[in-house]
Design goal:
By secondary structure, this protein is an alpha/beta fold. The chain has 13 helices and 9 strands. The chain has 2 domains: about 160 residues, Rossmann fold; about 140 residues, N-(1-d-carboxylethyl)-l-norvaline Dehydrogenase, domain 2 (Orthogonal Bundle). It is elongated.
């Protein structure tokens, strides 16, 4: 299939590579031409604008930082709307605003173009490996036509419902993740301040009812080591996701007190200049407030994790 792809950043580069590996012909665009060079070297065709991508494609995907970028690429000058033909399809893989996607869907529908929100979950590793969830909102029948193309990028492709549904699912997921991180930081810091050694406390709580669901397995990688540089997912992006989720809560009149409290902490973290650190960096604020910094050396953490995994692997009974 003739596929257009716009946005070749942290997530987009892996997604585009997997489309190419599946045999699709790629036309690509990014505001940073250098990001496209590896793809061009592998056979992708460069376009000078989103409009040119659209003119050369049967289906177009975007992977962009946020709602303003999506709106500009779709509806702005030399945007997708000026190039897409009737009965072609557009899928936005970004974490976006429900309102923006519904507006894009409405405008595109007037031209006979099918628009879908299709945010992804799995991080950069999942985008590169294809072990990725893709949650899709839009026309169910048309979705089925393009599902094989989506399956070139993710192993868990799911139709969620009408336009906006995929974005709602992603915002619920990411906002829950952010809120859980805030709660974990608060209670874990209390336990350390109460006198329990950090690794011992982590090993204890992971065997509780919630811990057996592996809620706490992510703590050693960053929080216990106070390692928030070189992010897997930038903090400014998770702040954007939680902001979008809370905005949606206002729209549907759903109270979100814990999410708002976490967002306040996120605002403080942004004001500290932590925007480009890891998405979990705001968890440090709980330690500061308690006067209890937590930092375990990497080797101790690795040994503890290895011991836990070995124990998990032993036959039970």
């Amino acid at each position: 299939m003739q596929v257009g792809f716009i946005g070749l950043g942290t997530m987009g580069k892996g997604l585009a590579n997997n489309l190419r590996k599946a045999g699709h012909s790629l036309t690509i665009y990014d505001v940073n031409r250098a990001a496209a060079e590896p793809h061009i070297a592998n056979g992708a065709v460069w376009a000078n604008s989103p409009r040119q991508v659209a003119e050369r494609s049967e289906v177009v995907f975007t992977s962009l930082p946020g709602p303003p970028d999506v709106e500009a690429v779709c509806l702005g000058k030399d945007g997708l709307l000026e190039g897409l033909r009737p009965n072609t399809a557009y899928f936005d893989l970004s974490t976006n605003s429900v309102g923006v996607m519904r507006r894009v869907h409405s405008v595109f529908a007037e031209r006979g173009i099918y628009a879908f929100d299709s945010p992804v979950s799995g991080g950069p590793q999942g985008a590169a490996s294809g072990k990725l969830a893709i949650w899709v909102g839009g026309d169910a029948k048309v979705f089925e036509q393009y599902k094989p193309v989506l399956e070139a990028m993710g192993d868990q492709v799911a139709y969620i419902g009408p336009i906006g549904s995929g974005t709602v699912a992603k915002l619920v997921h990411n906002c829950a993740s952010a809120v859980i991180n805030g709660v974990l930081a608060e209670v874990f810091t209390m336990g350390v301040k109460a006198g329990v050694e950090p690794v011992a406390l982590w090993r204890a709580i992971r065997q509780g009812a919630a811990g057996r669901r592996r809620t706490f397995d992510k703590l050693p990688d960053r929080f216990l080591q106070a390692r928030f540089d070189k992010p897997d997912f930038a903090f400014r992006l998770v702040h954007k996701d939680v902001s979008l989720a809370i905005a949606l809560g206002h729209e549907v009149r759903a109270p979100m007190p814990l999410s708002n409290l976490v967002l306040q902490d996120m605002a403080e973290a942004l004001n500290r200049g932590w925007a480009d650190m890891d998405s979990s960096v705001f968890m440090q604020l709980m330690e500061e407030r308690a006067g209890t910094p937590i930092k375990v050396d990497a080797e101790t953490v690795r040994a503890a994790v290895a011991a836990e995994l070995a124990a998990d692997a032993k036959p039970k009974g």
